Amino acid sequence: MRNIANISLRSGIAVVTVDRPPVNAIDQNVRAELLRAFSELRQQADVTAIVLGCAGRTFFAGADIKEFDTGIAQPSYHEVFRLIEDSPVPVVAAIHGTALGAGTEIALACHYRVADAEARLGLPELSLGIIPGAGGTQRLPRLIPLAAAADMMLSGRPMPASQAKELGLLDQIVSGDVIEGAVAGSGGEFVSRPSSGWGSPGACDVV
Asked: Which residues are catalytic?
């Protein structure tokens, strides 16, 4: 069986690319593959930064709603997202397309977020009768103003990249291939910041 999460190395920068057509919805297999990839990278001392992106037309479009009926199997979202958040090197989310629900929540667990100009982020869980339960309710208000975070969660409206950048949800908007743009940032600006504890700006304690 092919890997869903593939790792490539570029001069010390590890690129983790998830490929689960059609929209990279996060299910048990995706979580297990992310757990494997980030666990492996923690053992590689020559890795100075990690870029997390997706193949195809979009970043993680959200959780696979088929799991809503069967229950969330292990590994849990919290286990995977905490592993990303606790990475000893900075993790940069490379966002394109529409990142909704768990797609936005995994980006929040990363230390930096880069997107193309057409990207949108959102937390539409309330429309499904649930809450952003994978850390979104904690991490988002610690990253952007409380009123903006509340509006994003209560309205469920996707936020365009330009607004996300203005609020501080995105660190950069890049042109061209977003993974390449994130790699370029990972080789300079992001890794030049102090490395004592790479807790994400929205780091949280969740159970």
From this structure: 105, 125
Over the stretch 153-187, which tens digit does the pLDDT of each residue have? 999 999 999 999 999 999 999 999 999 999 987 76
Comparing CA positions, the residue from 113, 160, 142, 123 lying closest to residue 206 is 142
Taking the alpha carbons of 37, 197, 134, 154 in that order, is the dihedral positive or negative?
A: negative
Of residues 119, 136, 101, the one with CA closest to residue 179: 119
Task: Quote the CA–CA distance of 112 and 164 in Å, as a whole number.
Answer: 13
Q: Which of 55, 51, 40 is nearest to 12 (CA)?
A: 51
> Which residue type is seen at 107?
A
Please name each of the domains of the chain with its CATH number: 5-186 (3.90.226.10)
Answer whether 0.85 is exceeded by the pTM.
yes
